[in-house]
Amino acid sequence: MARLVPARPAALPHDLRHVRKLADQALSRAAGAPLIGGNRVRILKDAAENYPAWTRAIIDARRSIHIEMYIIRRDPVGRRFIELLATKARAGVKVRVIYDWFGTGFAPLFGLFRPLVEAGGEVHAFNPPSLTPIIGWVRRDHRKLIAVDGRIAFVSGLCIAQEWEGRPERRQDPWRDTGVEITGPAVASVEAAFAESWRLVGGTMDPPDVPEPADTQEQGGVNLRVVATEPFVASVFQLDLLVASMARRTLWITDAYFLGTSPYLEALRRAAGDGVDVRLLLPQGSDVGWTVPVSRTLYRTLLEAGVRIFEWNGTMIHAKTAVADGRWARIGSTNLNITSWIGNWELDVAIEDPGVAGALATQFERDLAQSTEIVLRTWRRPVPPPAPPRVRARRSARRVMRTVTGVGRSLGAVVTGNRPLEDYEVPPLIGAGAILTGLAALAFWHPLVVAAPLAVIAGWTGLGFIVEAIALWSGRRRKPAP
């Protein structure tokens, strides 16, 4: 059994120690991760700080390099890292790479990893499409981690791609993102998270390649939790809800693809209503374009409760961070949406240290200086002149997107009756009713148009059941009798 280095509690009056103990217990249970002390932590901003730190650690590697990355592009940045890893593999360092097949796309088919494999490195795709499980292949490995020699680890929102360095020829600034460098006993927990993913993709690792926390020397005084989530575990979701409930003064959040669930939105609303300074920094434009108008459908209910919302003025803000009360911080890969919270493999670091949290809060304030605050209008908007046809078409598309994508939250309230509906939910309900009515009419007039997709889905599902049953039956047949 691994012995974790216990966190050193801050000096507190005797009557507050019990409260601190209860809070620590609640955070540990919510995150599913213990508080580990003795670490040194450095916040890294953008590719300008993260990529050089990654490169130095890889160059200094002596035994092992472990990388688990959602996206590795076949562009100058991706090829640069692959060549560096191949160089270390030829020097005898064990290089293991996990990439997500969906995030990385077709790059492996065009030889992205060939130099690394030929040099002796090991590369595996995570959860590629298969007949079974039926739709399990849609779950993604969204983690971004690098661990070297069991000595140093990096957890971040950055992938390995040109977007993070920018494209000056296209007038695209580098993406704004945040990562963290860790040395100390918590590195063993990052390595353990990678080892579990490596096992899932069919790889094997010798015990010496997975360090124990007790074997790692303390490097500083920072306490943190390594929160490695898997589908349906929802550790970060529980942690985010708890922190939103416990924040007393400030809760400042940066997110790239904000689609908060009803419980989380309500937690933010209640915190703001209780006097907490709640701020959200979100992108003004996104590589996943539809997420911005969807996020904006949630603005009004938050703004009316006192939450302040800002949109980044640059190309893209991709960071996933939170800082509360200048004492608690979270940095990692989890976005504030149901896919990240429940559907993906994610990795985040929850830090309980005033120095680190203060540095992240300072960076947040600097980011706000490059952002635009969104406010509720209190006056009647004048009628604008007619817009050109193409502009009208784009506006119409955005209106349709906002209507359709607001359906889920509103329909949930209608079906379950778990809360009263609000005025702003009229458009989503009308949109949902129109769509369902249209589908019903289509099914009456052209049944084949509706039946054909259902037949494909049913056939795929049925075939998957049969294959799964045959595999299970064959496995039992081969299993020797006791």
If you had to describe this structure to a student in words, what would you say it looks like?
- The chain is 43% helix and 18% strand.
- The chain has 16 helices and 15 strands.
- The protein has helices at residues 14-31, 46-59, 76-90, 101-104, 114-118, 187-200, 235-246, 262-273, 291-296, 299-305, 338-343, 354-368, 389-405, 407-416, 426-445, 447-478; strands at residues 36-45, 64-69, 94-100, 122-126, 144-148, 152-156, 178-183, 222-229, 250-254, 277-283, 308-312, 321-324, 328-332, 346-352, 371-374.
- Strands 4-3-2-5-6-7-1-8-14-13-12-9-10-11-15 form a 15-stranded mixed sheet, with helices on both faces.
- α8 links the parallel β9 and β10 (277-283).
- 40% of the residues are buried.
Keywords:
482 residues, alpha+beta
**Which residue ranges are poorly predicted, with pLDDT under 50 across at least 5 consecutive positions?**
389-407
Radius of gyration: 24 Å
CA(first)-CA(last) distance: 30 Å
Class by helix and strand content? alpha+beta
Number of strands: 15
In helices, the fraction of residues equals 40-55%
Overall mean pLDDT stands at: 83
Q: Which percent range describes the beta-strand content?
A: 15-25%
Shape: globular
Query: What's the helix count?
Result: 16
Let me know the largest β-sheet: 15 strands, mixed
Q: Strand arrangement, largest sheet? A: 4-3-2-5-6-7-1-8-14-13-12-9-10-11-15
